[in-house]
Fold:
Amino acid sequence: MRNRTVQITGALTAVLALSWSTRAAETTNPNPAEEQSALMKFLTRDYLFGDWGGGRTWLSDRGVDFEFFYIGSLPHNIDGGIKTGSAYQGALLMLLDLDSRKLAGYEGGQLHVGGAWLHGEDHFSDHHIGDLNKVNLIDFPNQARLWELWYEQRFLENKFSLKFGQMAVDQDFLKAEFYNSLASINLLNQTFFYPTLAFNVYDIPGFPVGYHALNSSPYGAPGVRLRWDPVDQFYTQAAVYDGYPDQKPSGTHVNLNEAEGALAYFEVGYKLNQRKQDTGLPGNFKLGAFYHTDDFPDNESTILSFIGAATPTTHSGTYGAYFLADQKLFREIGKDDPAQQGLVGFFRVAGAPKDRNLTQFGIDGGLVYKGLIPSRDYDTFAVAGSYLELSDDIRDAQRAVNRIAPVFPALVDYEAAVEMNYKAQMTAWWTLHASVQRTFHPGGSATNPDSWAFILATTLRF
Structure:
């Protein structure tokens, strides 16, 4: 284990050194357009395969844009959790967008198709750490599946937009604009991409099985979303999705019925200093809620029923609320800086009722600095932490059961995570990430020891 860690660290150091020398060569070249070598042209183009022989530009001029995005990662549980060990996990994302104006001559329409191929050793966290948050962003079952397939139409001078089809909720709601979107991945723990509390609509392990789940990437679900932007700084939106998204390998099975219920999201947002004429530091502030219509088991009565001390009951629906803020705190240069160097801070809090959900409160936040090291303008250094509190009702029921028989050696309480991440922008199309994570109370109790994990990951655009 120690040798593997040394090898990974050595490889990271070597690649960083190569990237540093490449960036230095770019900086010292007085006439890059005239003297740029074939190697430098290769390293500075936007995609690994460039313009595909002119094909990408030709298609884009006619309203067809596509992109392939690959993520490869080596998560390694160094200490604690369930067991130590490492794995390889990979994901290929395939994206296609069609523009109605260029293709058909009418304004405001967009058709989007997204697919994902997940491969490698799946369920890393389940096998090695036991955490609810999941340390690795692409830790999902191996499958090739349809991710999204939707059409959006904007109308009334772009004040309204209607979007329908198969959609992932994290692409519209509770969406991070600055610090950890798909276009700019900085943190690898899944909870910083989409908060773990939102996954309350999944079944609680050991409880009766229901028809409820979350259409979070890479899972999509049929739905419709309406958004209104009355002014540049403000918007409101609402959406309804199938409450039980298809999790089979293909992602193409649609089964809309009353038993599955529906998942509704609502959100209002304020965009600070994001108009062209604004000179202040930009930010986003979002307030929202969600509601699932299916029946959910009552936590306390369900657990007590295991020993015959109560009759299990259910609740009609579950819900939660959230607040998200991400704000540019400092600019190194100015608004027109291509790299947008500076410091971004983010904060998020969410809550849900304790009587029917696994988790009742979650809070996370952190800082992301772009261009911290001189001459490394596009690199990012990020530090973030999260605290997730499990249901008081589950803990009270476990305590009541233990008075009769010591069934639960450790009561549920909380799970916390801290991540420190450095992303090196090796080229315009290649990044390398090093992430160190500490998980406290994996799984929300003291059953498993606190864990140290290290992840080396890379992304490619082609």
The chain has one domain: 45-461.
